[in-house]
Write a structure and sequence with these properties.
Helix content is 37%, strand content 21%. The protein is an alpha/beta fold. Strand 3, helix 3 and strand 4 (75-80) form a beta-alpha-beta unit. Bound molecules: calcium ion.
Length: 227
Amino acid sequence: MRILVVEDEKKIAKALHDGLAAQGYEVAVAHTGEDGFFQLNEHTFDLVLLDLMLPGRDGYEVLATMRKRGMTTPVLILTARDAIEDRVLGLDSGADDYLVKPFAFPELLARIRVLLRRGKSEPATRLRLADLDMDVMARRATRNSHPLQLTAREFELLEYLLRHHGEVVSREMLARDVWQTPTRATPIDNVIDVHIARLRRKVDDPFERKLIHTVRGMGFVAREEAP
Ligand code: CA
């Protein structure tokens, strides 16, 4: 799950980043509203933690622009008590929830879990990771603009990894969600491993930057790592 933190106070932003990363979330930080909006346009996030009082474009503006453009990503507002306004309390600003600073971290985690479960974000039809681009509707995948020749199953596998990018995907998850075998009575781990190997040959082998990684004893993760 990817979370964008838009917070200009560097200390708070860092504390949020570190605390959420420790919980296994993939966290991006923006220190201004402009950068926040830029990142929202560049990447897919599952949740936005948005401070209201930001230099330049403030939190309200970021939120209003997001909603105007049809972005349905859940937004949790973080605000100082003296900055809180009626429209936040009524949540008619387009936010999904708010939390008054200072807050207890476990409280924040609980709110985040609720919003993520609600899963308000529409499944994206365009998936990107580094220079890998998938157009799910057109069933087209490219890396660095070179088309990848994937079988239907490889395409589904790659789509699943990208939809969970940054998260470890287990063989159980792949068996259930991609192969749709209700139980693993017939072990298909070997089948999964063979498909992953083939997918890597096409997606990663010709390129310096590897995107599909094995997590020993756990499964696989699609992630951009420094070469
Ligand atoms: Ca602030």
